[in-house]
Amino acid sequence: MFKRSEQAGASRAVTLRLAGKTVNAREGDSVAAAMLAAGLAGCRSTPVSGAPRGPYCLMGVCFECLVQIDGVANQQACLVPVREGMVVEPQQGKRALDGSAAPQGAA
Fold it and tell me: pTM for the full model?
């Protein structure tokens, strides 16, 4: 699906947790790029049908890549650079307006 090309002088590797899996990414990658490289295409689920959604525009316009990063919900994965030890979880259901995670199964 998404394959990274190997480049001379590549950035250093960082380790993070994506949807419960420990994965490696390159320093400077966005969270969305790390998710795609790890084979995780789903960032969130829709509030009405529960259908999975993933990165679409990769430039911060569409809000399809909302995830929870280090316990903070509503983060755009395409705009946040990876850093060592971060924990990223898919966002389920509707967004909470106060920035907290929405309740599981909320519609």
Answer: 0.77
